[in-house]
Amino acid sequence: MNPLAQDAEAAKSVLKTMWMIRRFEEAVEDLYGRGMMHGTMHLSIGQEAVPTGACLALNKDDYITSTHRGHGHCIAKGADIERMMAELLAKESGYCRGRGGSMHIADTTTGNLGANGIVAGGVPIATGAALSAHMRGTKQVAVCFHGDGAMGEGAWHEGVVLAAMWQLPVVFLCENNHYGMSMASEKAFNLEKLSDRAKGYGIPGVTVDGNDVQAVRDAVQEAVDRARSGGGPTFIEALTYRWRGHSKSDKNLYRTREEIEEWRTHDPIPAFEARVLQAGTLTETDLEEIRNQVRDELRSAVQRANAAPDATADGLLEAVYAS
Amino acid sequence: MNPLAQDAEAAKSVLKTMWMIRRFEEAVEDLYGRGMMHGTMHLSIGQEAVPTGACLALNKDDYITSTHRGHGHCIAKGADIERMMAELLAKESGYCRGRGGSMHIADTTTGNLGANGIVAGGVPIATGAALSAHMRGTKQVAVCFHGDGAMGEGAWHEGVVLAAMWQLPVVFLCENNHYGMSMASEKAFNLEKLSDRAKGYGIPGVTVDGNDVQAVRDAVQEAVDRARSGGGPTFIEALTYRWRGHSKSDKNLYRTREEIEEWRTHDPIPAFEARVLQAGTLTETDLEEIRNQVRDELRSAVQRANAAPDATADGLLEAVYAS
Amino acid sequence: MVDEVVEGTETKVMTYAEAIRDALRVAIAEDDRVFMMGEDVGIYGGAFGVTGELINEVGTERLRDTTISELGIVGAGVGAAITGMRPIVELQFSDFSAQAMDQIANQAAKIHFMLGGAVNVPLVIRAPGGSGTGAAAQHSQSLETWFVHIPGLKVVMPATPDDAKGLLLAALDDPNPVVVLEHKLLYKTSGDVRVGDARTPLGVAAIRREGKDLTIVATGVMVSRAMEAAEQLAAAGVDATVIDPRTLKPLDSKTILASVTATGRVLLVQEAAGTLGFMSEVAAIIAESETFAHLRAPVRRLSGLDIPIPYAPKLERAAVPQVEDIVAAATALVTEW
Amino acid sequence: MVDEVVEGTETKVMTYAEAIRDALRVAIAEDDRVFMMGEDVGIYGGAFGVTGELINEVGTERLRDTTISELGIVGAGVGAAITGMRPIVELQFSDFSAQAMDQIANQAAKIHFMLGGAVNVPLVIRAPGGSGTGAAAQHSQSLETWFVHIPGLKVVMPATPDDAKGLLLAALDDPNPVVVLEHKLLYKTSGDVRVGDARTPLGVAAIRREGKDLTIVATGVMVSRAMEAAEQLAAAGVDATVIDPRTLKPLDSKTILASVTATGRVLLVQEAAGTLGFMSEVAAIIAESETFAHLRAPVRRLSGLDIPIPYAPKLERAAVPQVEDIVAAATALVTEW
Ligand SMILES: Cc1ncc(C[n+]2csc(CCOP(=O)(O)OP(=O)(O)O)c2C)c(N)n1
Ligand SMILES: Cc1ncc(C[n+]2csc(CCOP(=O)(O)OP(=O)(O)O)c2C)c(N)n1
Ligand SMILES: [Mg+2]
Ligand SMILES: [Mg+2]
Q1: Where does the record place the Dehydrogenase E1 component domain (chains A, B) (predicted)?
Q2: How many separate domains does chain B show?
Q3: Distance between CA atoms of residues B16 and D83, nearest Å
Q4: How many helices (H) and strands (E) does chain D have?
Q5: Same domain, D140 and D174
Q6: Structural domain of residue D261, as residue ranges?
Q7: Which of C70, D74, D284, D303 is most exposed by smallest CB count within 10 Å?
């Protein structure tokens, strides 16, 4: 498939997305540290290549279901960062009017059916979205992002069983960052590759380097093409690593500093930048410009979000039911 | 392993158990038809070789968890047929004092932890019993009987995941009678062999002829030996067929008369009798004697059960909590 | 209204099961977005025969047999509902809502609110509850409490064939998740059912009978038992009002309170276990209201025993209110106070 | 008793989380059958730090990290409980009981009865509930209703560090499944805790404060809010009794009714959504009882709004009763009636 690093537009777009995810989450971390943000947060720093690569294979009206660690998915699918940030800052202008927070951001205009606070909660939902696409005859595809830990849940199993039976247009994309909170996926699942699970559902399964945006894009593209042409679901395991703790309460006792350091040397962003430079597609100046552009966009989005009015408790009762 | 058909004692025991299951369920069917039995019933006629073969590999203090179609498991593990029948007849002397009925019979004295009205409900329970055996250091093994349909449930998945992670002494024994109610397992699971699922949990999986009592015994024996010696769980698929409808409400619209007829020619009981005769282990007279003995034992058990006092509603409230 | 079926409306005698099937037929014909999925709803015709031969009319796309995966199918219903379909999920027994509770309570019920109103979840979940068939503890529960307690769900409990159809069609119109709790013992009961697309509005109680001496509020299969009891009471000179809330959430408490204010006595009858059964809420609403001052006797609940439903027929019968229990409780309320 | 910790008993100041850990330590040391399993309870120390470094004391056999499989681990607990162990299962958030509901309600709760008493299920399920941490709708529920409604379960809700320890140890002694609903906001609160194996008996309410003007019944985190409100009310001349039921099932209704009979006014305070929240049952019990005749004002419930818990701090606060709401409701009860 077309090498992203050799196409200037594609390369720019990839870098913009990956940097935006990184910078967005760094900003979240900072705001949180300064007491300006509430609740908890799950950062995907280090994992940016997975949503970025995956969403490159999708149309705007294709669906994704996301997770508690969902900022990257949301950004990669095309959401507005100001409204995302506004949500985290508990503003009325946030995607959920401050009712959902980080774990529930959705942007249906770009096909994101929502982050989910429930591990594997989005799996049967993705299957349902794919069923819906199939029944409406739209050729839309659903990509279900989920973690390695999610594969211990019955919801994961049932969602995949139904999708396989009905051969629905859905891609189960496991972001295997090696841990479900403190539980090592290696220990949890007794498997060399989580993609070995796919066989048990009679669907194709593949494992790719999740820090290689090209590898992710290619695998997802293949799966999406198959799904769109009626070939049914695919399971993809993307190997990656979360640099930060699981959430704010994490003391990182279950893994070594060396392991974290080792994985930081596999940062997906500079790795892709290096490829782009090597291919001569963009110059160091171009790269710098992208970084600056992202920084400026983000800074201004944070400022605007922060200046917006707080979510209000008016009409809470009326907001429970649609009418 | 030792051929059951060549050992007179073993052969007698196998035939006694298989005939008892068959006759017990025929009696149930008859009592039900005559309005003497209440509720619903799930008959395992045609599937007798699975519980019979499996329980031959077990010690009395090994555990089983059973299903809604559980008469065979219960009998094969050694329960008293009078108390079983009394339960179905809603008698105080029944295993559950008439509170449970067919779907909840348990006989903990022979290690049967209970039938279960919930499809796959027994799967995590079996894992827990195996965990308990492991923690108590007893070398007991748990065999979890379940249907093919149960493999669509999240409970099945989660029970197997935990057992595989902890390498517990449990055997997941799927009675694949080709249908979960009206859903063909072939259609449901997109797999040639359900045992292909085992790989996804990193545990051994095997498919055997479930109408061949020897094949079932051998496969379960191997799995039990592995479990007892610390080798962890095994998944076994035993291919068999239910002759009767799923329950009383079944009109058998989802399968053909020919299919049923074809499977009836693979009746596990005469097949084993033929082998025994061929090996010269027992004579036709011996076989006749076994059948008569079973018939007499059952008839007398039914009579005694039927004559026993009905379950009473006294103390229902006090029966909810143990003290 | 005392009489459900308005004079002049065309009706047909149907069983409760047939009425549901009729609603499915109507809804599938009139709206491309409607489909139903569940275990054995296709060729098998449903565990209780609700779908019957409907599969031959509507086909396997609109009436989908599923694997035994309650959580998965409710979740698939949620996914379909938020992407433009109007799914109905049948749970074979309402007891299996336990399997699906995350998708029901944590997803379906909350998505609209949690996402700031960005999405609706027009999902209908049908599930038969209740005892009386000898199916024992795991197949006989009345679990309306679980759903009524969760903000974001609507809950209906049809007691007649006409409501079985009308409430289901109204549930399908609603942009919110609606749990329709049917009753196994009612499937074979028959009555007049409006033909065509006849809706029973959500949130409106039915006054099944009007009387001045006491108010009986009953749900599900208890409605017909309360009506039978009311006949017996009438013969003994006690004149009872019988109210069937039909929708448990949102509850038409106005109708109930008005009646209790008028009669001064109230008997709340449910099959569910008493402790935190639905009638606890009705009792609390009455105790908190202005009606409190009009009570001539304490509120009285008549509920299923706080026990798992036993298998033995006599025990099963003893576990939930019967006509004679209602008569006795009503008589005591009227004579002792 | 007004004072929980009996004079002369040796106590130590601990947080609620430490008190639970202490109970685990005591139970694991004194009984070979006791172990706990759950997500991240080992080296991570628990999502809320409840187990802390306990793993270093008791090891990975007795404190078992599990996969993310709530239904599976509760089921494994059931299997272990019926075969001679005394398992404790920690659900990381009580919201995830939705995943495990089949094993909780259909298996654990029913097995003893359904099997005619042949087996006991001495299983303890610990689960933190409640809002106040900004975790939004799927991580903030108060779901006691689901459990209290199911016959066969016992349910406790410790409001103090001493009860967190004492009720957990008593739950472990009990031959029945007990759901222990802890509160996230309480984990870091501290108080005197009896050292050693100090039990708080199940089924006995605590009178936290005695007053003559009204009775406040409060559960979980609302107990301390009610106590704070009572102080403010006292300053304004209103003398409130505060009752903490501690065990929701079986409920010590005697203590509540006696107090309400004496004061004639009752305010029921809970964090859970009001509709069919636990206090609906308490209200119904009062409305049905002899106490009814002694009421000088209607029963008053003060509950969480019937909404999913919102993320935004102000909205989250508005969703559940605060001290000032309790003061206002109590004042209205006393002055308007
Ligand atoms: C049903 C459920 N169980 C447990 C949790 C608590 N929890 C949140 S994230 C998480 C770990 C998830 O691991 P994984 O799926 O690998 O995703 P990752 O966090 O690594 O991105 C856990 C245990 C939850 N939110 N939902
Ligand atoms: C959780 C749950 N879902 C659905 C049912 C209804 N039901 C009972 S048995 C059955 C089919 C089970 O199929 P399988 O596991 O293959 O066992 P078999 O009946 O073939 O022995 C179904 C759908 C149930 N009892 N429990
Ligand atoms: Mg992970
Ligand atoms: Mg089967």
Answers
A1: 17-312
A2: 1
A3: 29
A4: 12, 14
A5: yes
A6: 206-336
A7: D303
d(CA B83, CA B88): 9
Task: Tell whether the torsion through CA atoms of C282, C285, C290 and C293 is positive or negative.
Answer: positive
- For residue C218, the surrounding DSSP H or E stretch is strand C214-218
- Please give the structure tokens belonging to residue B163: 């057992």
Tell me if D278 is assigned to some domain: yes
Q: If you measure from the C-alpha of residue A79 to the centroid of ligand 3, how many angstroms do you get, rounded to a whole number? A: 23
pLDDT digits (tens, 9 = 90+) for D89-135: 999 999 999 999 999 999 999 999 999 999 999 999 999 999 999 99
Residue B257 class from Cβ within 10 Å (0-12 exposed, 13-18 middle, 19+ buried)?
exposed
In a domain, B15, yes or no: yes
pLDDT at C53 (0 to 100): 98
Query: Is residue C158 located within the same domain as residue C267?
Result: no
Query: What end-to-end distance do the CA atoms of chain C give, in Å?
Result: 29
Among C194, C219, C236, give the residue marking a domain's end: C194
Confidence class for position C2, pLDDT limits 50, 70, 90: very low
C216 — contact with chain A (CB < 8 Å)? no
Asked if C187 and C210 sit in the same domain, the reply is: no
Alpha helices in chain B (DSSP H): 8-33, 49-56, 71-76, 81-88, 122-136, 154-166, 185-189, 213-228, 257-264, 268-279, 284-307
CATH number of the domain encompassing residue C314: 3.40.50.920
Say yes or no: C216 and C182 in one domain. no
Of D69, D113, D114, the CB nearest to B161: D69
Pocket lining: A206 vs ligand 1, CB cutoff 6 Å: no
Catalytic residue among C4, C18, C39, C70: C70
Q: Among D194, D228, D253, which residue terminates a domain? A: D194
Give the other-Cβ count within 10 Å of A161's Cβ: 28
Q: Across the interface, do B196 and A196 touch by the CB < 8 Å criterion?
A: no
Strand locations in A32-169 (E): 63-65, 142-147
Question: What was the pLDDT predicted at C5?
Answer: 57
pLDDT, average across residues D202-212: 98
And the tokens for C306? Answer: 């706080």
Supply the CATH number for residue A81's domain.
Answer: 3.40.50.970
Q: Which residues surround ligand 4, an ion (CB under 5 A)?
A: B 147-149, 177, 180
Count of structural domains within chain D? 2
The reply to whether C174 and C216 lie within a common domain is no
- Do D162 and D210 fall into the same domain? no
pLDDT tens digits along C237-253: 999 999 999 999 999 99
Q: How far is the CA of C113 from the centre of ligand 3 (A)?
A: 28
Mean pLDDT (chain A) is 97
pTM of the entire structure? 0.98
At D15 the pLDDT is: 98
Q: Closest Cα partner for B153 from A155, A167, C78, A129?
A: A155
What average pLDDT does chain D have?
97
Q: Is residue A310 part of a domain?
A: no
> The domain spanning residue C186 has which CATH number?
3.40.50.970
Against chain D, the chains showing at least 3 CB pairs within 8 Å are A, B, C
Mutation to probe ligand 2, out of B45, B175, B181 (largest number of atoms < 8 A from CB) = B181
Say yes or no: ipTM exceeds 0.95: yes
**Mean of pLDDT values over A239-244:** 98
Is residue D294 domain-shared with residue D253, that is, in the same domain?
Answer: yes
B170 touches chain D (CB under 8 A): no
Which residues in B lie closer than 8 A to residue D76 (C-beta atoms)? 124-125, 127-128, 131, 159, 162
Place of tokens 């059952």: B298
Q: Is C90 a catalytic residue?
A: no
Whether residue C28 is found in the same domain as residue C79: yes
The pLDDT score that the predictor gives to residue D3 is 45
Mean pLDDT for chain C overall = 97
Residue A30 in domain = yes
In a domain, A313, yes or no: no
Shortest distance between the Cα of B232 and any Cα of chain C, in A, equals 27
The verdict on residue C53 lying in a domain is yes
